[in-house]
# Entry
Amino acid sequence: QKEVEQNSGPLSVPEGAIASLNCTYSDRGSQSFFWYRQYSGKSPELIMFIYSNGDKEDGRFTAQLNKASQYVSLLIRDSQPSDSATYLCAVRGGGFKTIFGAGTRLFVKA
Amino acid sequence: DTAVSQTPKYLVTQMGNDKSIKCEQNLGHDTMYWYKQDSKKFLKIMFSYNNKELIINETVPNRFSPKSPDKAHLNLHINSLELGDSAVYFCASSRPGLDNEQFFGPGTRLTVL
# Structure
């Protein structure tokens, strides 16, 4: 079983729609959860982090965490073509190690 | 100012050669990392140093050897390069804490012929 699992996609949504990206993880002791965005040929950059159950909103982005279900998601409202990228879910345990998922490719159609 | 820098950006070399990739961060972070991203975009941790001390050493061939001369630098030396080493190598740094965002360098695309 992979430690952090994501649907590889591509996930295709029309401009203005809500994009929903999902991630599950296997280590129940995980403490911090991150969403990174990676444009093609570029390095990953942080969008949001969350470590408490529930929702966390930042602009058009909402991260949702459910530790009981070992599930974290990212919602992108009013999706724009510039949101087209690969979204990496990352999970950190009690130490220094952060495990990345394989990423979900998102394509927003204009 | 570049926060995390890597050199070189591209590296093309023959099998069997030895090469090094350098990384520097000017963010004052204590922790630095090396990741390998393969053709399927899977980002896998290789090594991590905290205050020049090795804290993460994943199952990586011992042909790969990291070196941290000081907190701001983490270099990666690769001996006897193999075709399977072709990938993009990212350096990253972070501060401690639950919200330890990792700042990534631009990556080094290594191609082994």
Notes: Chain B has a mean pLDDT of 92. The radius of gyration of chain B is 13 Å. The interface with chain A takes residues 31, 35, 40-45, 48, 50, 55-56, 90, 98-102, 104-107 of chain B (CB under 8 Å). Chain B has no helices and eleven strands.
